[in-house]
């Protein structure tokens, strides 16, 4: 199969992990921001996490640099547009982009201004290319429950106009869900859909709690349900969709190599899986590359790919009109 030519749906992509190195250099030069290097090849060494990362925390260190240039409305709009532009080049038809608004308020932007700027960048791309998108607001698990309430409240006005869901991300500790029960419950009341990073490190029980305590409809990663029978059972029975990111999982040592990745085994056992990049820059990847890597290991059939595409459309937080448009692309 020619994976580059096939239509694609991506549901798990972090904005701050997907910047072009050239853009970081360009903005830094204009705004006199210090970088480790202004040479593209050298800078990429700082931006891309190695396959030999020791942990998720080491992987997450790669997000500090991009954040330096993501503190103005113009830059956020440009960076979002470029991510969608990059996605169109590999035939991504629908893209859900997530980011943590509070990380982009360091130079005075309000949360609402941050969200509006990202939406505008997405709309710019939609008007120019054959791609559609939505935004997921991430709350940092390393921050307080009050910070999550702030994101939920300030993002509320954008629901149905670019924003579709709430997410919890960053370092994963055991039983993190308890801390965020109330803000996520409020988000659901307002109409946010819910996807939660869980089971990315060796804690399958976090997936169980994300579904039971937070009402997660989708799980970011979910690799470690393989080691937790209760989590596996609830994901399978409730058809909770896993947003799987193979390269990222190898980098963070969720799995040691691609051949160990459970994505194909889950798929064959009736668990709904989707292909995603997680972070195009930090993981030095694309959707086509992720699909190609999985195919190399597990020899995907056309029916396998078609089913995963359909699962992805159905699991998306898009409206029905957008879903029908995505289905018509295949």
TrEMBL record:
InterPro entries for the chain: A_deaminase, A_deaminase_dom, Ado/ade_deaminase, Metal_Hydrolase
Cofactor(s) required for function per UniProt: Zn(2+)
Alphabetized UniProt keyword annotations: Hydrolase, Metal-binding, Nucleotide metabolism, Zinc
Provenance organism: Lysinibacillus agricola
Family in the record: Belongs to the metallo-dependent hydrolases superfamily. Adenosine and AMP deaminases family. Adenosine deaminase subfamily.
Catalytic activity: 2'-deoxyadenosine + H2O + H(+) = 2'-deoxyinosine + NH4(+); adenosine + H2O + H(+) = inosine + NH4(+)
Annotated protein name in UniProt: Adenosine deaminase
Domain (Adenosine deaminase) ranges: 7-324
Described function: Catalyzes the hydrolytic deamination of adenosine and 2-deoxyadenosine.
HAMAP family listed in its UniProt record: A_deaminase (MF_00540)
Binding-site positions, substrate: 14, 16
Domain of life (superkingdom): Bacteria
GO molecular function: hydrolase activity
Cofactor, how bound (note): Binds 1 zinc ion per subunit.
Pfam family, one: A_deaminase
Enzyme active site: 200
Residue sites binding Zn(2+) per the record: 12, 14, 197, 278
NCBIfam families cross-referenced by the UniProt entry: aden_deam (TIGR01430)
Positions of the record's site feature: Important for catalytic activity: 221
EC number: 3.5.4.4
Taxonomic placement: Bacteria, Bacillati, Bacillota, Bacilli, Bacillales
């Amino acid at each position: 199969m020619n994976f580059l030519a096939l239509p694609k749906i991506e549901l798990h992509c972090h904005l701050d992990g997907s910047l072009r190195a050239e853009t970081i250099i360009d903005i830094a030069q204009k705004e006199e921001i210090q970088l480790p290097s202004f040479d593209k090849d050298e800078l990429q060494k700082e931006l891309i996490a190695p396959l030999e990362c020791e942990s998720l925390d080491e992987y997450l260190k790669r997000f500090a640099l991009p954040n330096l240039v993501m503190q103005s409305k113009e830059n956020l709009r440009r960076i979002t547009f470029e991510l969608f532009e990059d996605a169109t080049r590999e035939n991504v038809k629908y893209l859900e982009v997530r980011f943590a608004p509070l990380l982009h308020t360091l130079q005075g932007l309000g949360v609402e201004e941050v969200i509006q700027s990202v939406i505008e960048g997405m709309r710019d791309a939609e008007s120019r290319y054959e791609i559609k998108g939505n935004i997921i607001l991430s709350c940092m698990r390393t921050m307080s429950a009050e910070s999550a309430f702030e994101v939920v409240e300030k993002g509320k006005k954008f629901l149905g106009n670019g924003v579709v869901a709430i997410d919890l991300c960053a370092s994963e500790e055991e039983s993190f869900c308890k801390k965020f029960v109330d803000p996520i419950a409020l988000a659901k009341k307002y109409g946010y859909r819910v996807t939660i990073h869980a089971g990315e490190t060796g804690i399958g029980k976090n997936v169980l709690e994300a579904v039971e305590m937070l009402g997660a409809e989708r799980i970011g990663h979910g690799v470690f349900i393989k080691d937790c029978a209760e989590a596996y059972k609830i994901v399978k029975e409730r058809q909770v969709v896993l947003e799987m990111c193979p390269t990222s999982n190898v980098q963070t040592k969720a799995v040691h190599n691609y051949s160990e990745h459970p994505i194909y085994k889950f798929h064959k056992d009736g668990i709904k899986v989707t292909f995603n990049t997680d972070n195009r820059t930090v993981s030095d990847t694309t959707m086509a590359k992720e699909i190609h890597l999985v195919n190399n290991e597990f020899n995907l059939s056309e029916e396998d790919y078609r089913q995963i595409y359909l699962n992805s459309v159905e699991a998306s937080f898009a409206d029905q009109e957008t879903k029908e448009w995505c289905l018509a692309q295949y």
